[in-house]
Amino acid sequence: MTRAARLVEHGKPLKIQDLDLREPGPDEVVVELLFAGVNPVDRYLAEGRLAADGPLPRTPGSEASGRLEGKPVLVFSPTLGAERDGTWAEAVVVPREFVFDVPEGADLQEVAAMGVAGLTAWNVVNLAEVADGDRVLVLGASGGVGLPVVGLAASTGAAVWGQTNSEAKAEAVKAQGAERVVVTDAAGLADSIRDFRPTVVIDPLGDGFTSAALPAMEPNGRLVLFGASAGAEGTLPLRELYRNSLRVFGYGGLRLTSEQRRKGLEAALEGLASGHVRVPIGRVWPLEDVNRAIESLADRAVTGKAILQVR
Predict the structure, then answer these.
(1) Rounded to an integer, what distance in angstroms lies between the CA atom of residue 151 and that of residue 122?
(2) What is the pLDDT of residue 74?
(3) Counting runs of H as helices and runs of E as strands, what totals does the chain give?
(4) Cα–Cα distance for residue pair 207/190, rounded to 1 Å
(5) H runs (alpha helix) in 128-233
(6) For the segment 216-235, what is each residue's pLDDT rounded down to a tens digit?
(7) How far is Cα 150 from Cα 42, in angstroms, rounded to an integer?
(8) Which terminal Cβ of the chain has fewer Cβ within 10 Å, N or C?
(9) pTM here?
(10) What is the mean pLDDT of the segment spanning 193-216?
(11) Using omega within 30 degrees of 0 as the cis cutoff, is the peptide bond preceding 57 cis?
(12) Which run of H or E residues covers position 52?
């Protein structure tokens, strides 16, 4: 028996229910969970905007920290919460390949956010080849992925500026190692970063932010786009793009192979244990408040990651 948050009907509040755990099959294990990550994709799934044909009722959640045979582990897979019961529960039955060993010294609240935010931050910073001497602009720097990106980029020795649209969230960005925080919308971005001339831009926003950032970049700069939370359509300044030999990379975490995902997570978890990766936790919600946690994603009320304490 386990207690879980259950999606019974798309677009309706989740219900806390007790359910019997099924017996694990071949190559499956039962993991006792402690904390679970809450991500925008979970809201989309609950609303039926993604995986609308997934089984109902089901338990959402794709990532969590817990213990397997007494040892700390991360549980993560994009299929969890979408195609099968996920991690918003006291325990879960999963294939052994969804389980990742956690190095000693890693904080289990932060571990619960490593499957999505931690892995994304690790991969986009490495895709951009951020290094000492770079000038890195992180757009959406106060978000659940933006904050880890700021900290990881700063740990390389790069100079980091962060963009946010909220003055109230600027201190959190500075605490991650940003030399400067620019509080601006897309219309004011170009003027705000004109003197910085970033060699790297990490962009989860899209829309007008991308088109404003590109002309301000240093020639031969690299932009990594991994989201479009500000808008999925945009107009790019093509002359600046080719005349300055700028490179634009797209990163899509759902396109990773199992091998790529495991390799990235193992490296990111080592980075978490060593202190190079930090995933600031903005709010820990009890499982009973799961619907309030989902709502906090919509109004962006939380700076950093929102997680559930499931046990």
Answers:
(1) 10
(2) 98
(3) 10, 15
(4) 14
(5) 146-155, 170-175, 186-193, 207-213
(6) 999 999 999 999 999 999 89
(7) 24
(8) N
(9) 0.94
(10) 96
(11) yes
(12) none
Could you report the per-residue pLDDT of 74-96, keeping only the tens digit for each?
Answer: 999 999 999 999 999 999 999 99
**Average pLDDT rounded to a whole number, residues 179-201:** 97
Reading the block at residue 38, the tokens are 């809450």
| DSSP notation for 226-238 | ---TTBS-----H
Q: Is the pLDDT of residue 301 over 80?
A: no
Q: Which residues contact 207 (CB under 8 A, 6 or more apart)?
A: 186, 228, 230, 231, 232, 233, 234
DSSP E strands: which ranges in the chain? 2-6, 15-19, 28-38, 63-68, 71-76, 91-95, 99-101, 135-138, 159-164, 180-183, 200-203, 222-225, 247-250, 281-286, 305-309
Rg of the chain over all Cα atoms, to the nearest angstrom: 19
| Packed helices 146-155 and 119-127: angle between N→C axes, nearest 10 degrees | 50
Query: How far apart are the two ends of the chain, measured CA to CA in Å?
Result: 13
Residues in the chain: 311
CA separation for the pair 297, 194 (Å, rounded):
31
Token pair listed for 209: 């932010």
Task: Judge whether residue 149 has pLDDT over 90.
Answer: yes
Q: How buried is 212 (Cβ within 10 angstroms: 0-12 exposed, 13-18 middle, 19+ buried)?
A: buried
CA 293, CA 78: separation in Å to the nearest integer?
A: 20
pLDDT value at 208 more than 80:
yes
**What confidence tier does 302 reach under pLDDT thresholds 50, 70, 90?**
confident
**Interatomic CA distance for residues 223 and 208, integer angstroms:** 14
Rounded CA gap, 52 and 86, in Å? 15
Asked if residues 28 and 95 have their Cβ atoms less than 8 Å apart, the reply is: yes
Q: How many CB atoms neighbour CB 135 within 10 A? A: 20
Q: Answer yes or no: are the C-beta atoms of 18 and 2 closer than 8 Å.
A: yes
Q: At what angle do helices 40-47 and 290-299 cross, to 10 degrees?
A: 110
Residue whose entry in the numeric block shows the structure tokens 């500026």: 161
